[in-house]
Automatic annotation (TrEMBL):
One Gene Ontology molecular-function label: tRNA (guanine(37)-N1)-methyltransferase activity
Any one cellular-component term (Gene Ontology): cytosol
Species this protein is from: Krasilnikovia cinnamomea
InterPro entries: Alpha/beta_knot_MTases (IPR029028), tRNA_m1G_MeTrfase_C_sf (IPR023148), tRNA_m1G_MeTrfase_TrmD (IPR002649), tRNA_m1G_MTases_N (IPR029026), tRNA_MeTrfase_TRMD/TRM10 (IPR016009)
Protein name: tRNA (guanine-N(1)-)-methyltransferase
UniProt gene name: trmD
GO BP annotation list: tRNA N1-guanine methylation
Length: 239
């Protein structure tokens, strides 16, 4: 997968050199380039923003530098991702969609956002996804891009050592995962649940399923409400 990131703060993206994303880049599974939006300014001050039409607080990112950047980095097969608090929620399903794209371009907005015509114009040539990480406002899209890149790259074939991690984890099946434990069996007076040490794989699977349902009901009733009823069996209903 090829990824181009455009931002006024290219320094934000050094974490993408670390850990599994760094390894995926080194092995050639992932090719990431970060670009400074100010490359495509033409005035001495390298201005990227101006006051909003209609008034109001803050500044809006001007269209011309973004046009230069997107004309330079997009290709016929690009998908443009714009993190924004007004986007659609970024979910595991959205991560799966982005993971199938051969080329992702991320446009990082700052201030009050990017002039809407930039996105409208791009949408005449490529799919554009405005995505929000949640109902809160960040300073800009940079940190959101790092989050989205983690969620997407771990879905690319060959990036995770153990692909089973993907099927077992929280949100893979629309529920939260059960709690996990490792050695020692006793620690500060807390004990690992006996069932996990029983060696009985049937009982362990049953216990994990129950914990997963209880956790989801307690913490994310919205997820449980949207869970397909045909995926619940009689044990689940009892739990
Ligand atoms: N930029 C600013 N706030 C954001 C949010 N909540 N999600 C994604 N991008 C953002």
């Amino acid at each position: 997968m090829r990824v181009d990131i455009v931002s006024i703060f290219p320094e934000y993206f050094s974490p993408l050199e670390l850990s599994l994303i760094g390894k995926a880049r080194a092995s050639g599974l992932l090719d990431i380039a970060v670009h400074d939006l100010r490359t495509w300014t033409s005035d001495v001050h390298r201005t990227v923003d101006d006051t909003p039409y209609g008034g109001g607080p803050g500044m809006v990112m001007r269209p011309e530098p973004w046009a230069g950047a997107l004309d330079a980095v997009t290709r016929p097969d690009s998908l443009l991702v714009v993190p924004s608090p007004v986007g659609t929620p970024f979910t595991q399903a959205a991560a799966h969609e982005l993971a199938t794209a051969p080329h992702l371009v991320f446009a990082c907005g700052r201030y009050e956002g990017i002039d809407q015509r930039v996105l409208d114009d791009a949408a005449t040539r490529m799919p554009v996804r405005e995505v929000s990480l949640g109902d809160y406002v960040l300073f800009g899209g940079e940190v959101a891009v790092i989050v989205i890149m983690e969620a997407v790259t771990r879905l690319l074939p060959g990036v995770l050592g153990n692909a089973d991690s993907l099927t077992e984890e929280s949100h893979a099946a629309g529920l939260l995962e059960a709690p996990v434990y490792t050695k020692p069996a006793q620690w500060r007076g807390h004990e690992v649940p006996a069932v996990l040490r029983s060696g009985d794989h049937g009982r362990i699977a049953r216990w994990r399923r129950e914990q997963s349902l209880l956790r989801t009901a307690a913490r994310r009733p919205d997820l449980l409400a949207g869970y397909p009823p045909e995926r619940l069996d009689k044990h689940d209903r009892a739990a």
